[in-house]
Amino acid sequence: MHVAIVGNIGAGKTTLTGLLAKHLNFEAQYESVDENPYLEDFYSDMKRWSFNLQIYFLNSRFRHIVELQKRNVNMVQDRTIYEDAYIFAENLFDMGLMSQRDFDNYSNIFQSIIDYITPPDLLVYLKASVPTLVNNIQTRGREYESGIRLDYLSKLNNKYEKWIDNYHDGRLLVLDMDNLDFANNPDDLGYIVQKVEADLFGLF
Hints:
Layout: E1 2-7, H1 13-24, E2 27-29, H2 39-44, H3 46-71, E3 75-78, H4 81-94, H5 100-113, E4 122-127, H6 130-140, H7 150-165, E5 171-176, H8 186-201
């Protein structure tokens, strides 16, 4: 079983990944953001480093998911390879922060590798407004995220909505993070666990 948690920066993916994995007795697989050597450079000069950043994410996430699928483990995954292409790279191109040449190169690489992986059994989308995202980002206090622009978060949200509206690769659960506080409210977490188990195992 493969559950993937997706959503914008600050939506709560990492926290929910750990809590869900514990409840389901699945392995938690986290996004290795802090290990990306281009991240700080990207936030200081997005146009110069966007292609490098996205290629690093694409390659590392592809290698990781192929390894996991070979092991055939039950897992909850923090972010997916699909977001790299459909959300972040496309958004950087739309904002003029990635050239046409680099975007075409990136897209061709993505299309070449996507056939080698299997979509998740359940995709859980954490839908959150920009104020909720900003509050969460400020609360966790990562220095390199302090300069993220509001229009950047807003454009990412639009990309997520477009992708989710057209998602047909498997089961989908959308959670409204403006009205759920699973990190601090056990009832909210229980509600989410119940919904996930219903989608995975047919429990009601």
